[in-house]
Design goal:
Blueprint (H helix, E strand, L loop, with lengths): L16 E6 L1 H4 L13 H10 L7 E4 L7 H15 L3 E5 L2 H4 L6 H17 L3 E6 L13 H18 L2 E4 L21 H15 L7 H4 L11 H24 L12 E6 L3 H16 L8 H4 L16
Parallel strand pairs: 1-2, 1-3, 3-4, 4-5
Antiparallel strand pairs: 2-6
Length: 313
Amino acid sequence: MNPPAAGAVDRPQVIRSYVAIGDSLTEGMEDDSGPGGEYRGFADRLAEHLGTLTPDFRYANLGVRGRRMRHIFGEQLEQTLEWKPDLVTVLAGGNDVLRPGNDLDELAEQFEQGVRRLRDAGIRVVILAGHDTGWIPVLRLYRGRIAVFSMHMRAVAERTGTEIVDLWALNALNDPRAWGDDRLHPNGAGHQIVAARVADLLGHPMGPRESWTDPWATPPRQLPRILRRRENRRWARQYLVPWLRRRAMGRSSGDGLLPRRPELDYLYDEETRERLRRELERAEALPRQDDRTVEDARPTISPSGVKGPEPLR
């Protein structure tokens, strides 16, 4: 659960190792801002930020597109428990929820069992709950199932004492500018919003709160209806039909793929780590100039933002 309002964060917990487990969102799909156009994603962005706060920071990303609950709380979980990192982010269940035949209550039980194993190992866990698909054609049909499973995840967080970031509550994600062309995965801007929200919850903000509450200075542009219909047809041909075809054949876009960062290893090379160490030592020697009040130091509990666009029709 999110920290209580009365719990001030004066000295946030130092995070020296981080493992991200999950599916395509954890892998970073549609955020091609990595070296050579590789995927980056919220987990990489969060790791890059945390890596500037401690010189020997280590990171692994086990997320692979198409992975379902049995994979995430199977081989990904077992590997993570062997490493026992300081922090784990969990984004799981999306590919299972989108299959109508799956029982959401049973999925929630699997989810809770996996989270409890992480918590019992003494690992700090942040759950990421599902985002609102009400503005996306066809995917809005799954909105109810996503909402129900998100409530299950909030209940799991409450019962296990786990922190949670509810992506549904991030109004900034209800904006097409945060999403890739496939409308299934955030683009670079969307992944940055998620990373900044998690960092704020951890007590290590990546910048002002507006970076994840109100990232744009202008409202989203509304296309005329005829252009929306044309764009929806293009999207259906290019993305929806192949997705439905793979599902009908029992295939996944992640079949045969391996994680991008399969080992818990140093994020930066030795030279960069040494430079960071010197910079941190110099910063520690300076007089404290942080005169923020206790209220300012608390992680944000409830996100705010502008209203998203009208649903695409």
